[in-house]
Design a protein that fits this description.
- The chain has 4 helices and 12 strands; from the N terminus they run E-E-E-E-H-E-E-E-E-E-E-E-E-H-H-H.
- It is α+β, with helices and mostly antiparallel strands and about 220 residues long.
- The chain has a single domain, classed as Beta Barrel (FomD barrel-like fold).
- Strand 11 (about 130-140) and strand 12 (about 145-150) form a beta hairpin.
């Protein structure tokens, strides 16, 4: 994909997670908050229609044991049309790094940062495309850090979703994120936890081509 011009604030783009092993994917329409040389900041509002992968029988992926979760030959995959439940999240994709940072809120206020390890983002005309790397890093408001889903990454390696070398690279990516947190570098130091969405923004729409892919609704 050739890199497009920066997206205008207030516009909508698709944040897509693909998987080379099967045609299902996660597709989330988001509204652009800021887009420049530092990266993309986008808002995923509560109630936004989205596409996500499920097991072939329609169950959620987490309804099967971790050891089976990444073996597409055992349970298969399908797409489900869904909406984003709960509070919205602010998603920050810094330029050129293999992760994005998601800011979560609840009724009591800011909950913390969730760092999703993923491929360096590719940009299309109206989309950001990446692949999830399973391992994640959670950062609390008081800057405590812990890794998440290490057991899932091990299971993914066991069934061949990733190689041991790839998993080691993802673990290094997690270590790099932890170093950014220790230094309190961007985007953690950018003050996004005080940001609030424009309540007049309408919900972005999932394009019909993705709606038509859903086996379950």
């Amino acid at each position: 994909m050739s890199a497009p011009a920066y997206w205008a604030p207030g516009g909508t783009v698709l944040w897509r997670y693909t998987n080379p092993r099967h045609p299902t994917e996660t597709v989330r329409p988001v509204r652009v908050v800021r887009d420049d040389a530092d990266g993309l900041v986008a808002w995923l509002a509560a109630g936004t229609a989205l596409l996500r992968p499920v097991l072939a029988d329609g169950r959620d992926l987490r309804e099967v044991p971790v050891a089976e979760r990444f073996d597409v030959h055992v349970h298969g995959r399908a797409n489900r049309l869904d909406v984003w439940h709960g509070h919205g999240i602010l998603k920050v994709a810094p330029t050129g790094v293999p992760w994005s940072v998601w800011l979560f809120w609840n009724d009591d206020g800011f909950r913390g940062w969730y760092v999703n390890l993923e491929s360096v983002h590719e940009r299309g005309d109206h989309e950001l495309v990446t692949q999830d790397h399973v391992l994640d890093v959670v950062v609390t408001p008081d800057r405590e850090v812990r890794r998440k889903d290490e057991d899932e990454l091990a299971a993914a390696v066991t069934v061949g979703r990733f190689t041991a070398a790839e998993a080691a690279a993802f673990e290094q990516d997690a270590a790099d994120v932890e170093d950014v947190v220790r230094r309190w570098g961007p985007p953690f130091c950018a003050g996004w936890e005080s940001w609030a969405a424009d309540q007049t923004w309408p919900l972005p729409q999932l394009p019909p081509a993705y709606v038509d892919r859903a086996a379950y609704r």
